[in-house]
DNA sequence: TCTTCGTGACGAACAGTGTTCTCCCATGGA
DNA sequence: TCCATGGGAGAACACTGTTCGTCACGAAGA
């Protein structure tokens, strides 16, 4: 991992080679996006700045703006790169509910496997990048295969996506190794609040702080998919 | 060297009065929070900086740190102030579903009536401020009155809160007077993408971009509350 | 009444941020 | 061989949240 620094003091006639060689590849949109994802994986979203990405590529922040229009666009591209990993399957009317759940579980997992990248997903605009639209397309096909009408499927795909990104974000902020310690602190705090004003919260402290992981995600997923299934006239429950 | 600029040229014996009079009220936590909310109402979340709050109160940013620990804490306090406006009612087992919906509708409205304040709500930690906890307490009571067991009620209050803040945020970012123009641009974009790769999206463009408002919120609300109601053993559907 | 003392106020500064301007120079086409 | 084009990059701009050190003022003590 030679950086650009050791160029100082080199003989003049080496300079051309030295300038051509260390730039292993010319800067490109793809390389920038990959570098950004590497930084998120290694240091988290808070560490992701344009200067940091430039540094990762042995250059400065200004050079990036020839290939990406803004940081916001860069984040969209990073998200799209991650979305590309999500496995898609053709819609099957016989098992559409399980297909939808699987797709959302995979989406959640893809986001969570890159630290707190989900933060970018919640703040992002309505997704218009290719792979994000592939996912939406697939999910729409599944919902339609399940018999949902156009408007319900449209609302549904939005609702399910919102749920998945929001819970992934929530999980990633309190994620990591200190989950135990986090729920512990919350539980301690609940022990200090006045029980006469908050009888429910104090008495349910354990239930409220239990399991911030998969189980809670599955809980909401079941409710949402079952709720959508009940919208189809022929048979729900 | 004289430090403060605007004091220049004033007679010396006026100085004490001049410094005492313009400070109409002493800085306080409450005044700071109110000023911050005024700024959000007038200029939106992006304009809310510590310097801007200081300016609103005729002082600098540094002075605020004697009363609030950080900007994050300030945002929590602003949210709590807004949550204080939300009307609460005692839980009634006969009509708990409508009560829950009403409460969430009011919460959504409270957030949306302050520009894009919902942005603070999505990023915020699990709410621990008094009025936020009043809402959680009330909602838990309603869910329990509906017959939900402890764990389901705990998951439920979290799920419903997440849904409300997330959709309020989504609505506020594309909100304002340019909603028409926004959906129009999305619809135009959908017309340019390849129909053979995205048959669902292109054919459902109208349904996908229709009504970013109350109707979509009600759609998800119905599904969630009905889904929770079905969790109680005695009678759901 | 005079003096000390603690505390809120606050200007300046620090270490960042995203983005733009402007110049430099290597490369490809003529 | 010459020149134009366009990417690379340093510096600068206008910000951000936060901390430091100083300063003035009201209250308590002598």
From TrEMBL, chains A, B:
Q: What is this protein called?
A: TetR family transcriptional regulator ActII
Tell me the PANTHER family matching this sequence: HTH-TYPE TRANSCRIPTIONAL REGULATOR RUTR, TRANSCRIPTIONAL REGULATORY PROTEIN
Q: Where is this region: Disordered?
A: 1-26
User: SUPFAM superfamilies, alphabetically?
Assistant: Homeodomain-like, Tetracyclin repressor-like, C-terminal domain
Query: What InterPro entries does its record include?
Result: Homeodomain-like_sf, HTH-type_TetR-like_transc_reg, HTH_TetR, Repressor_TetR_C, Tet_transcr_reg_TetR, Tet_transcr_reg_TetR-rel_C_sf
DNA-binding region residue numbers: 49-68
Q: Where is the composition biased (Basic and acidic residues)?
A: 10-19
């Amino acid at each position: 991992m030679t950086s650009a620094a050791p160029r100082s003091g080199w003989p003049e006639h080496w300079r051309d080679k030295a300038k051509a060689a260390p730039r292993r590849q010319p800067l490109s949109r793809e390389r920038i996006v990959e570098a950004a994802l590497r930084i998120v994986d290694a240091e988290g979203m808070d560490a992701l700045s344009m200067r940091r990405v430039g540094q990762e590529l042995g250059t400065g922040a200004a050079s990036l703006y020839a290939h990406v229009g803004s940081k916001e666009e860069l984040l969209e591209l990073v998200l799209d790169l991650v979305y590309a990993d999500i496995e898609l399957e053709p819609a099957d009317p016989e098992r559409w509910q399980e297909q939808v759940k699987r797709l959302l579980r995979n989406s959640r997992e893809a986001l969570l496997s890159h630290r707190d990248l989900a933060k970018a997903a919640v703040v992002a605009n309505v997704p218009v990048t290719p792979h994000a639209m592939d996912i939406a397309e697939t999910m729409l096909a599944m919902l339609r295969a399940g018999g949902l009408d156009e408007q319900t499927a449209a609302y549904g795909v939005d609702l399910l996506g919102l749920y998945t990104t929001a819970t992934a974000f929530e999980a990633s902020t309190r994620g990591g190794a200190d989950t135990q310690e986090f729920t512990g602190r919350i539980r301690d705090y609940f022990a200090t609040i006045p029980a006469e004003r908050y009888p429910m919260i104090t008495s349910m402290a354990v239930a409220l702080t239990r399991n911030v992981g998969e189980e809670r995600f599955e809980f909401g997923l079941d409710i949402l998919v079952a709720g959508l299934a009940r919208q189809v006239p022929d048979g729900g429950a």
